User: Which sequence fits this backbone?
């Protein structure tokens, strides 16, 4: 079973437009006591922080100015000014996304525009926070898997089915299960050459966690698609963080489902690339096999 060891806050790579508040939350357990004071203040008052001078933040957090500089570097920023830029960018994105809430009196035109704009914003958000090392590790594990199984419930079950459709064409023995009993039976038949991709918008589904634990007990490597700092991401051998918050009281998950599909596409292309140039003959054969099913124009 493959396990990716998490990096400390000191090893976080700087990523353009990275979600700095999520980085602070993730790094908090590894920060010095004085840096934790800064982290707590920033998480509570991000809007206020982006207008502060370094001396103001030091005074409010009751720390020294050098502590502020060390804190910024610990979360992947070169200094206080770069840190403030990231905060401002994240707050701007949050405000833009918040403008697209659906109102009861919205017209069809409003609904179409808001959903399209929100989806574009959220996919761009995922692109900016994506960690290529996680995608690379997941693609490597899938490339060498004897069996590949996708687990998900509800809207995530639909993503699992789409993933199965993509990966079975890559000569991987694959299946998708959205029933807890089927997942449990599948999990106990896996071994150390097998991979499970567990997909969850919340990262907190109890039945999915049970299936993941069974798969790991039998030696399988587990890849997760879930938000950071959730039980599923923390349990996975190779977590892929997808941090999207959605109001699911009225609507099923929409943008998170599309984000999951985008990550599936990234993985499929990465695995195909690892197959080498000779694999294109196999893909061409698949295209020819379905050509006869289409009506000629």
Assistant:
């Amino acid at each position: 079973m493959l396990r990716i060891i998490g990096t400390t806050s000191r090893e976080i790579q700087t990523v353009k437009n990275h979600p700095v508040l999520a980085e602070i939350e993730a790094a908090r357990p590894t920060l010095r006591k004085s840096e934790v004071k800064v982290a707590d203040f920033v998480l509570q008052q991000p809007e206020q922080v982006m207008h502060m001078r370094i001396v103001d933040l030091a005074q409010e957090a009751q720390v020294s100015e050098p502590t502020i500089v060390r804190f910024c570097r610990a979360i992947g920023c070169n200094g206080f000014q770069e840190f403030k830029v990231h905060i401002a960018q994240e707050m701007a994105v949050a405000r833009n996304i918040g403008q697209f809430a659906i109102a009861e009196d919205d017209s069809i035109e409003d609904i179409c525009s808001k959903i399209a704009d929100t989806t574009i914003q959220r996919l761009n958000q995922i692109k900016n926070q994506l960690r290529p090392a996680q995608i690379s590790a997941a693609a490597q594990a899938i490339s060498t898997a004897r069996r590949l199984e996708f687990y998900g419930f509800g809207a995530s079950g639909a993503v699992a089915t789409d993933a199965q459709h993509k990966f079975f064409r890559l000569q991987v023995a694959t299946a998708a299960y959205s029933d807890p009993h089927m997942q449990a039976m599948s999990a106990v038949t896996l071994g150390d050459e097998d991979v499970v991709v567990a997909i969850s918008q919340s990262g907190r589904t109890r039945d999915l966690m049970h299936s993941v634990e069974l798969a790991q007990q039998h030696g399988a490597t587990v890849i997760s698609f879930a938000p950071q700092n959730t039980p599923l991401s923390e349990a996975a051998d190779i977590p892929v963080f997808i941090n999207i918050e959605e109001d699911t009281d009225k609507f099923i998950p929409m943008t998170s489902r599309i984000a999951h599909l985008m990550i599936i596409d990234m993985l499929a292309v990465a695995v195909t690339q690892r197959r080498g140039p000779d694999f294109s003959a196999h893909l061409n054969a698949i295209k020819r096999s379905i050509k006869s099913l289409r009506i000629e124009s």
About this structure: Residues 49 and 56 are 9 Å apart (CA to CA).
